[in-house]
Amino acid sequence: MENNRNSPAKTTTPAPKIDLSYIQGLSCGDTEFEAKMIQIYLNQIPVNIAFLEDAIARLDYAEVKYMAHNLKSSMPISGLNSILPYLATLEDQALENKIAPSTTAQFESVKQTILQSCTTLQQYLDR
Fold first, then answer.
1. Angle subtended at Cα 27 by Cα 69 and Cα 51, rounded to the nearest 5 degrees
2. What is the pTM of this model?
3. For residue 13, pLDDT beyond 70
C-alpha cells in the first residue's frame, strides 16, 4: 500500500482574497511595521486555529469563546472580514454552551480559508 506523504491534500476552497488596507492604514507607509504585523499574524494564526479546533472537539465552550474572539480580532490584518460573522456566531454559541452542528460542520471550510490566507501572506512577504 503506497503512502503518498509528499502530495498536499486537495482542497476545493479557493484562495482567499487578501486585503491589506487595514494594516496599511495603521502603518502610514511603514513597510517594516506591515511586515512585522504580518509575521506576527503568520506565527499566531495556525496555532490559534489548532487550539480552536481542539476546543470545539472537546466542547470546551470557554476556550472556544476565547479563541473565536481572539481570531476575530486578528482577521482585519489579512482583510478576511468575510470570516467575522462565522467567528461571532461561534463565540455567541459558545457563550450559550451550545455549538450548533451546522457551525461545527462549517469550521473546516473556515479553517482552510484562514490557513490559505497565511500562505498568501507569506508569499506577499517573500516577494
1. 25
2. 0.83
3. no
Task: Work out the percent of the chain whose per-residue pLDDT is above 90.
Answer: 85
CATH assignment of 21-126, among 2.40.160, 2.70.98, 1.10.10, 1.20.120: 1.20.120
Three-state secondary structure of the chain: CCCCCCCCCCCCCCCCCCCCHHHHHHHCCCHHHHHHHHHHHHHHHHHHHHHHHHHHHHCCHHHHHHHHHHHHHHHHHHCCHHHHHHHHHHHHHHHCCCCCHHHHHHHHHHHHHHHHHHHHHHHHHHC
